[in-house]
Amino acid sequence: MQERLQKVLAQGTNLSRRAAEVAIKNGEVRVNGEVVSKLGSKADPERDRVTYKGKLVRLIRQKIYIIFNKPRNTIVSKTDEKGRPLIWDRLHPDMKEILNSAGRLDFDSEGLLILTNDGNFIQKLTHPSGELWKTYYVKVSGIPSVEKLEKLRNGVKLDDGMTLPAKVEQIRTTDKNAVLEISIREGRNRQVRRMCAKVGHNIMKLRRIAIGEIKLGNLKPGEWRYLGKKELYYIKKVLAKIAKFP
Asked: What pTM was estimated for this model as a whole?
């Protein structure tokens, strides 16, 4: 059965749908020995010989979803030119080959990542439609006023535009710091850090604790587990709900 080439790549490599499209445009994909660079091209993964950068693409039929507690001072990327520690160093070598992270966390951030070989899920989860809430515990310098907390909730103007309304609660305070729980529906680069800095409170520590209904729980930094049945059912609901987005 013929399928769109970018779908075949997403199912048989560690590429997301978007990355697969770029690979096709760049002439890195061949079907039966011929370069295919036109988006929308199709192939039968059972009969055609599809290669990406010279390597045969084999479909991975089983979808894998893993929750990983990213430690601080690690990189989500597969390689790092500065030689910094990678999250993949904490996992089985095979996982680095077949899984990708559905979303990112900065080098100095920690917490929940979903690792998967489901390129479709990665595309939907990171889509700018803002369908899923991501929740963070953040420790900030100083103690935000009621007015500043309300400003974070209503949206602040960043260099790349106004943020969507957020959920913000002050969990506890000390003499010099406050711990906030912040939930956002967007995925802009370093967004939570920039939001807090905008209202005058730099983040000292950031940990993501939930993506939608999927929670970090009591996993220690560097530990991982497979998603449970209820969480897998939730993933299916997410994919169905956001199916209308291309």
From this structure: 0.76
Q: How many helices (H) and strands (E) does the chain have?
A: 7, 17
7: alpha, beta or left, given left = phi > 0 and alpha = psi -120 to 50? alpha
pLDDT tens digits, residue range 4-61?
888 888 777 777 778 889 999 999 999 999 999 988 899 887 788 999 998 888 776 6
Quote the distance between the C-alpha of residue 153 and its chain's center.
Answer: 23
Residues 50 and 10 in one domain: yes
Domain region containing 201: 134-211
Residues 6 or more apart whose CB falls under 8 angstroms from that of 32 comprise 48, 49
- Does any domain span residue 180? yes
Residues 140 and 203 placed together within one structural domain of the fold = yes
**219 and 104 within one domain:** yes
* Residue 48 annotated to the active site: no
Amino acid at 4: R
In a domain, 160, yes or no: yes
Query: Are 170 and 221 in a shared domain?
Result: no
Considering 106, 118, 159, 160, which one is annotated as catalytic? Answer: 106
Count of the separate structural domains present in the chain: 3
Residues 149-164 have pLDDT tens digits of 999 999 999 999 999 9
pLDDT at 245 over 60: no
Angle, alpha carbons 97-100-105 (nearest 5°)? 130
Distances (CA, A) of 59 to 12, 41, 44, 118: 4, 17, 11, 11
Which backbone phi and psi does 30 adopt, to 5 degrees?
A: -125, 145
